């Protein structure tokens, strides 16, 4: 039976039920709805609307339903109810008769769903935060396993300057730390409780909204009833954070797919995160990484979809807003899966340090060092840059690296070049010269790793 039956003579068509019913997906809010309802029953009791006995009966029935929800024992599909709120109310009436019919006094599904979904987001923010922390640990751990390994650093996907592999890991540590801080940020704005705002204009019963908010673990109540029932910014912020973090995961995946390619050969991925080809026996494909990249589409889509859904809505609640859930539920699930699989990929990967070093030594990644060397000899940087460019051309002609050119050849380009240039052109030399906060020198990176471990341990 629909909650709103009295006004209607006819039944909803099955097609209308198909478009209107949200129970098939909003049943994930069962626990939150039951918790919110327990608090609401207490608020009504305190306001003198429910007797102690009625409140106790309601609470016992709601707690029983909550246990069943936790154990997966509620049969949503068989109920035929419209949404999770109707489901819970119908179950209460079934158990308690008229007492069950009293719970919805002064409450609307509008303030109810706004509260439930905030509770749901809050819970998922907590678990996503710990997924992110686990990923940070995996990044630090692989960086430590290969702390001295040198890889080529790229710009434009051209070898640019050598960097430590650990420095690459720490770049992603920074990104995922920012994602954590975005979650912390949105948690602050999420932390207000809409319950007690009624359908749109506030409730007529003298419930204590501060008390309700506190009982549900919020910092306080929302301050405007119209806004409270029609605000979905907290979902948008979660979707934006999910999207940004998926973008970070995707870039990391893209780097690793390239490093894992036959052409680069910098690393191998474990069997546990790769798959083979049904046709080509030699293949070991980086599917986990490709899916981290691929799943961005649906997560970004969910953000876009909700923005578009919300943009034209007049105040206050409109049924359009029911569309806030499926995309968010899916986005959170995908983000969670990708964070976990990313950590597994990092745990499984083995760096081929010799091959990385060889690649970092090729491609004239030390040309900047030659320019800087000339600066140390009093040559203006722009001139040094030009001379180093000429040295690259010479090396290309000889089919060798800059450091393999004879001193006389180098001196034919610039008289300021001396024997000591060969030390400068060594791989570690330029790398360790970048001994500046945020740079790739072995010392800075070791300090950064130490600092990140410490911060994580304090969390
Ligand atoms: N299932 C609805 C939703 O998710 C609950 C709110 C319904 N309110 C209403 N007045 N029809 O948005």
What does this structure look like?
The structure is a single chain. The protein has about 450 residues and is mainly alpha-helical. Helix content is about 65%, strand content about 5%. It contains 21 helices and six strands. The chain has helices at about 15-20, 25, 30-45, 50-70, 75-80, 85-95, 110-145, 165-190, 210-215, 225-230, 235-260, 285-295, 295-310, 325-350, 355-360, 365-375, 380-400, 405-415, 420-425, 425-435, 440-459, and strands at about 150-155, 160-165, 190-195, 220, 265-270, 350. The strands form three sheets. The protein has a two-stranded antiparallel sheet. Strands 3-4 form a two-stranded parallel ribbon. The chain has a two-stranded antiparallel ribbon with strand order 5-6. Strand 1 and strand 2 (about 160-165) form a beta hairpin. The model has no long low-confidence stretch (mean pLDDT about 95). The structure holds arginine. Arginine (ARG) binds near residues 83 and 113.
Summarize the structure in short:
With 459 residues, the chain is mainly alpha-helical.
- Quaternary structure type: single chain
Contiguous low-pLDDT stretches (5 residues minimum) are none
Q: Let me know the number of strands.
A: 6
Mean pLDDT across all amino acids = 96
GO molecular function, one term: argininosuccinate lyase activity
EC number: 4.3.2.1
InterPro entries: Arg_succ_lyase_C, Argininosuccinate_lyase, Fumarase/histidase_N, Fumarate_lyase_CS, Fumarate_lyase_fam, Fumarate_lyase_N, L-Aspartase-like
Family: Belongs to the lyase 1 family. Argininosuccinate lyase subfamily. In the C-terminal section; belongs to the acetyltransferase family. ArgA subfamily.
């Amino acid at each position: 039976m629909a909650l709103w039956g009295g006004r209607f003579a006819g039944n909803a068509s099955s097609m209308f039920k198909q478009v209107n019913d949200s129970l098939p997906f909003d049943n994930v809010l069962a626990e939150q709805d039951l918790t919110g309802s327990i608090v609401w029953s207490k608020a009504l009791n305190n306001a003198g609307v429910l007797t102690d006995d009625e409140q106790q009966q309601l609470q016992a029935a709601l707690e029983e339903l909550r246990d069943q929800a936790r154990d997966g024992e509620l049969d949503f599909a068989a109920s035929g109810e419209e949404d999770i709120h109707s489901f819970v109310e119908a179950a209460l009436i079934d158990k308690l008769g008229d007492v069950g019919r009293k719970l919805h006094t002064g409450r609307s599904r509008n303030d109810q769903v706004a509260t439930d979904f905030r509770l749901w987001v809050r819970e998922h923010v907590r678990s996503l935060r710990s997924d992110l922390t686990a990923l940070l640990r995996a990044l630090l751990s692989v960086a430590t396993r290969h702390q001295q390994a040198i890889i080529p650093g790229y710009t434009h996907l051209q070898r640019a300057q050598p960097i430590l592999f650990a420095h690459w890991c720490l770049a992603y540590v920074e990104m995922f730390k920012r994602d954590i801080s975005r979650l912390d940020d949105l948690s602050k704005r999420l932390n207000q409780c809409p319950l007690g705002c009624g359908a749109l204009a506030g409730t007529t019963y003298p419930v204590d909204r501060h008390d309700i908010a506190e009982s549900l673990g919020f910092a306080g109540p929302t301050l405007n009833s119209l806004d409270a029932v029609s605000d979905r910014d907290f979902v948008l912020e979660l979707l934006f954070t999910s999207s940004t973090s998926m973008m970070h995961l995707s870039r990391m995946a893209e780097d690793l797919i390239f490093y894992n390619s036959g052409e680069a050969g910098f690393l191998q991925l474990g069997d546990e995160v790769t798959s083979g080809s049904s046709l080509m026996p030699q293949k070991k494909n980086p599917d986990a990484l490709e899916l981290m990249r691929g799943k961005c589409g649906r997560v970004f889509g969910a953000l876009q979809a909700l923005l578009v859904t919300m943009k034209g809505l007049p105040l206050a609640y409109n049924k359009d807003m029911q569309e806030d859930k499926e995309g968010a539920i899916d986005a959170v699930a995908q983000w969670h899966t990708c964070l976990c699989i990313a950590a597994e990929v990092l745990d499984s990967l083995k760096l081929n340090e010799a091959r990385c070093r060889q690649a970092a030594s090729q491609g004239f990644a030390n040309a900047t060092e030659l320019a800087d060397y000339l600066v140390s000899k009093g040559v203006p940087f722009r001139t040094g840059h030009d001379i180093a460019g000429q040295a690259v051309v010479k090396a290309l002609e000889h089919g060798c690296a800059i450091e393999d050119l004879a001193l006389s050849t180098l001196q034919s380009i610039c008289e300021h070049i001396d024997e000591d240039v060969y030390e400068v052109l060594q791989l570690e030399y330029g790398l360790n010269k970048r001994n500046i906060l945020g740079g790739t020198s072995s010392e800075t990176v070791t300090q950064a790793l130490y600092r990140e471990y410490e911060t994580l341990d304090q969390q």
